[in-house]
Amino acid sequence: MRLSDKSRVKNAAAALGLIAVIVAAFTYLKVNPRDILLAVPRFAGFFVRNFLPPDFSSLASYIPLIAETIFFALAGTCVSSLLALVFGFLISERTNSIAPLRHTARVVASVFRNIPVMVWAALLVYIFGIGSLVGLCALVLGTLGLLARSYAESADGIPAGKAEALRACGASYPQILFHGLLPEFIPSWVNWTLFSLEINIRASVILGMVGAGGIGIMVQTNLRLFKYAEAMSLIIVLTAMILLTELAVNQIRRRLK
Amino acid sequence: MRVPLSPVSHKLRVTATALGVAAVFTGSAFFLKLDAVKFFSRLQNAGGVLRRFMTIDLSVVGAATAEMIGSLAMAVAALCIGFFISLVLAFLAAGNTAPSKPLAAVIKGSAAVVRAVPALVWLLMIVASVGFGNAGGLFGLLFPTCGYLIKAFITSIEDQGTGSVEAMRAVGASRIEIAIKGVLPGAMGQILAWSAMRVEFNVAESVNLGMVGVSGIGAMLMRALGKYQYGAISAIALVMLITMSALEILVNRLRRGIRGGK
Amino acid sequence: METILSVRALRKSYGAFEALRGVSLDFHSGEFVVVVGPSGAGKSTLIRCINRMIDPSSGGIEFDGVRLERARGAELRKRRAKIGMIFQHYNLIGRTNVIKNVLHGRLGHMPFIKSLFGLYSMADRLRAVALLEEIGLLEQKYKRADELSGGQMQRVGICRALMQEPRLLLADEPIASLDPRSAETVMNHLKRMTEQRGICCIVNLHQVDFARRYASRIIGVKSGAVVFDGKPEEFTADMARAIYEGGEADPLRGAAGDSVSDGTDYIEAAATPGGEYAAV
Prior knowledge:
The complex is a heterotrimer of chains A (about 260), B (about 260) and C (about 280).
Chain A: H1 5-29, H2 33-51, H3 63-91, H4 99-114, H5 117-128, H6 132-156, H7 160-168, H8 173-207, H9 216-224, H10 228-256
Helix pairs in contact in A: 3-4, 3-6, 3-8, 4-6, 5-6, 6-8, 7-8, 8-10, 9-10
Chain B: H1 8-31, H2 36-43, H3 45-53, H4 61-93, H5 101-116, H6 119-130, H7 134-159, H8 163-170, H9 175-212, H10 216-226, H11 230-261
Helix pairs in contact in B: 4-5, 4-7, 4-9, 4-11, 5-7, 6-7, 6-9, 7-9, 8-9, 9-10, 9-11, 10-11
Chain C: E1 3-14, E2 17-28, E3 32-36, H1 43-50, E4 58-63, E5 66-67, H2 73-80, E6 83-86, H3 98-103, H4 112-116, H5 122-135, H6 150-163, E7 168-172, H7 180-197, E8 200-205, H8 208-214, E9 217-222, E10 225-230, H9 237-244, H10 264-271
Parallel strand pairs in C: 3-8, 3-9, 6-7, 7-8
Antiparallel strand pairs in C: 1-2, 1-4, 4-5, 9-10
Helix pairs in contact in C: 5-6, 6-7
């Protein structure tokens, strides 16, 4: 396979552009490669001296916060997967033939998606005050944007013939939606929802760091108070929690197949 | 005579699943003391709050953009370094190119653990060790970047199968030759696509870092939030939104271009 | 014979391309009409204009005394409910079981809320079971549709269409994706079941030999116009050659024209799915 001259020029230009961006990035940061190399032993030494061994002594008092983190992720996933279903169907050409509505929904979803969850949480504090509602709403908004796009892509992937067949039977729009498209859509729905659970459990951990509920606040506090060993115990627990979620999700996926 | 639409066992399974999901949600909502009444009463504030956000303080746009570029630069730099580290480690760990099985298992296991720790936690641990600043942030971003890329790259390399590897081994090619000439050309498209995707995550993480730290656009936002400077908050959020949206479009284009070119 | 469908001066154009150039035809109850012609000749467009899956550019369609080209919304759905349709790719809902797929034929006859909760009447359920039994798929009634073979899926498609209690049945290349053996089974069922019920059946086919064997009337279409309309025995080899030769969008051009007489080559040649809907 020989590349044509045109695509060769294009590839070369792309490579040059990429190198320029990378050089610009390093120059802008004024980071010396030596600093990064030196950071490795510094981090390793600091880590071993201060973070280890983890101090599990006060772990029991954190259990309610850890549970809260998990429940945030679960509730957030439920709400966002239902809302995203509506959004996804509003965005997909298969399910929504009104172009202006489609574009509006697409823009709204991309706004939700492109503002980081942490930023959402911080902004929502203004509306809901500090507490569970902020955390949940932030999770829902962030996940909603992501899921809506994925759902819409999956809905677009359903063969047009399925809807056509029911239309030919004289079925109305809601009937086509519920009897034709929804059943075909369920596998991707379940898959993306499980995926969003994995994302939400991580997001829920860090959301606490801006005071939106959950265990994150304690990680943050311990680090600020230089109680590294205690922070480490929390980090280990959180990591185990995330790994277990992934394991559980994979199990569910396998059983559904 | 009755003609059920589906067998009883199927109906039971569907009902049980639905009840299970409903129970999980109500259980969680109950534990979190979520209050629908409170939600809707607070939601009524939204109009007033949003109206105040409608003003944009143009004077902070310049500073916010500079900070945003800093986040972008950090994301790109971390990705660049992480790319090469991950590529080497992925070749050492992928089933079809790994030189030793125990080494491969160690790499895969470590990557899984690194991935499981939220990116922000990595950043905080490292910033605690080496201090805030670009070197610290960059180094901190390396961990989640590598954790993610190693897994993705391994998949792409393993997708190439063992055929070309065995063929090249048969003619006496060295490991590095096999990796560079036998496997990399086929896997490169996917590898670049994964890397492009990672840019978005890295930018979001470096914004997050600022929100719990002292510098960057995140910190700027938190300061404005603390002082109730609505105009500044909207300006900063808008800069973020525009940057992230532009980045998303660019990354999607790149990925499509990579896929189309292959 | 009662005329149940009249098509008058039907035209359909896509930009500059004219898929149908003024087609006028009458169809009668109990007829088994096979429409033949090369892919791209306008067979699919014709059949889809009849139940308004495609809106014609101009012309009239009178079905059961009603002008379909003017029907809209609920009125159109009510009329469509009386016209069965089966497809080349079956278009069953794969993750739904067979009996529910068959009962989908009733959707046009019931309100949304009733169908949402699966409140099909006992009469409908019994009829679905009877249809499945007649077509030899009763055992599979709780199987997911995507677990069936192609021939079985098309048989479910026939049941779904008959479930509508249609007066007219449209079939768009029903056997183009099937092996010759399943194709024969499907055609046998289709012919027998529509004949018994006195339903007018319009079938698009590539295969001239199948057309001769099953049709009570053959219509030849070329470049969007009717070039033959008559009894199967009048459809000579010369006629077939004329239709398939030199068609504007004819992928079989050249080689195909020579082998019409024995017909067998056509099955293979036509097995490559063609037409504007093949890609769906």
